[in-house]
Specification:
Largest sheet: 9 strands, mixed
Helix content: 25-40%
Order of helices and strands: HEEHEHEHEHEEEHEHH
Number of helices: 8
Mean pLDDT: 84
C-alpha cells in the first residue's frame, strides 16, 4: 500500500504507468519458459528447508539475488507457486523493453538504471504497483550479475527507499544457485527465506531497511549454499525435470550394457524426485511442509 507522508506525493504520482498484463500471454510464456529450461537444466528444485510461507493478504515483494541470465525465467516458473489471481511485475532496462515490447504484457516495466530519473521512475511505478493487493513485485536489488558466493550481498539503495515508503507489504528473500551435481546439465536451485512483514515502515530509515534486507538475503543464500553442497535431491521438491544423461557415444554404450544385463536404461546419474507437471500441482507443492499457499 502507498504511504504518502509529509506531503510526499511526487514519488507516488498518479501518472506512474503500470504494465497492462495479459494473463493469457503470461501463462503461455511461463509454459514456454518451463519448456525452455528443461533443455538446459537437469532439474529445477525448491529447497524443503525454506518452505513456502503462509503469507497474509496484500502486496508482495520477492527480492532475489542475481547470479545468472536465467534468473527472470526461473522467477517466472516459480511464480506458479502463487495463486492465479496474483499479478506479477518486474523492472527491466528501458532499452530492453523498447526492443521487446511484448515484455510489457508480461508485467515488465522499463527503467534507466543508474540515473536519478530511472531511480525516481522505479520508486514511483513500484509504489503504484504495490498499492494493489494482488501485486507481486520481483526485484534483483543487486542491480547486476553477482556470484552467489559473494558476501555481503550488495543491495542498491532503491529497495530500502521503497520499503521505507510502504504502508503494508510482505518481502520474501529468494536465493538462487545453478550448481553442477552428477549430470551433464546444472541444477537450478531455489530457497525461499522467512517473509518480512512491512508495517510502520517509516520508523526505519532507508539505510536500516537496506541492512535488514541484506542480512535476510545473505541468510537465504548461505542456507541454499549449504544445501547445494550436500548434493541431495531429497532435500528439495522437484518442480521441473530436464535434460539427463551425457548423450552421444557414451549413452549408446550405457544403453547396450543395460540391454546385455537385461536391465532398464536410466540416463540420469542420480535419483531425483517426481517433477510437477502442471500449474494445478503447484498449488499443492507445500503440503510436504505442512504449510499453505497465500
Amino acid at each position: 500500500m502507498l504511504a504518502q507522508r509529509n506531503g510526499d506525493t511526487t514519488i507516488a504520482a498518479p501518472d506512474a504507468v503500470i504494465p497492462a498484463i495479459s494473463p493469457w500471454l503470461f501463462r503461455v510464456f511461463r509454459g514456454y519458459a518451463r519448456h525452455y529450461a528443461r533443455r538446459s537444466f537437469h532439474a529445477i528444485r525448491i529447497a524443503r528447508g525454506g518452505p513456502w510461507p503462509a503469507l497474509p493478504p496484500g502486496p508482495v515483494i520477492v527480492m532475489l539475488n542475481h547470479p545468472s541470465w536465467w534468473d527472470p525465467l526461473i522467477g517466472l516458473i516459480l511464480s506458479a507457486l502463487f495463486p492465479p489471481d496474483r499479478r506479477h511485475y518486474a523492472p527491466i532496462e528501458a532499452q530492453g523493453l523498447a526492443q521487446y515490447r511484448f515484455l510489457g504484457r508480461l508485467g515488465f516495466f522499463g527503467i534507466d538504471a543508474g540515473t536519478s530519473l530511472g531511480g525516481l521512475r522505479f520508486l514511483r511505478t513500484s509504489l503504484s504497483i504495490l498499492s494493489r493487493p494482488e501485486s507481486v513485485l520481483w526485484i534483483t536489488p543487486q542491480g547486476e550479475f553477482v556470484d552467489a558466493r559473494v558476501r555481503p550481498t550488495a543491495i542498491k539503495a532503491g529497495l530500502g527507499l521503497l520499503a521505507q515508503r510502504l504502508e503494508r507489504a510482505t518481502i520474501i528473500p529468494l536465493a538462487l544457485e545453478y550448481p553442477f551435481w552428477n549430470d551433464r546439465c546444472p541444477e537450478a536451485l531455489a530457497w525461499f527465506g522467512e517473509p518480512i512483514g512491512v508495517e510502520r515502515a517509516h520508523e526505519r530509515t532507508p539505510a536500516a531497511w537496506t541492512r535488514l534486507l541484506t542480512e535476510a538475503l545473505d541468510r537465504s543464500q548461505d542456507r541454499l549454499a549449504a544445501a547445494a553442497l550436500a548434493r541431495d535431491p531429497a532435500a528439495f521438491t522437484t518442480l521441473v525435470t530436464g535434460a539427463v544423461g551425457v548423450g552421444g557415444v557414451y549413452d549408446v554404450w550405457r544403453r547396450l550394457r543395460s540391454l546385455a544385463a537385461g536391465t532398464s536404461f536410466k540416463p540420469g546419474h542420480s535419483v531425483g524426485t517426481r517433477p510437477l507437471h502442471n500449474d494445478n500441482e503447484y498449488k499443492h507443492i507445500m503440503t510436504d511442509h505442512s504449510t499453505r499457499l497465500p
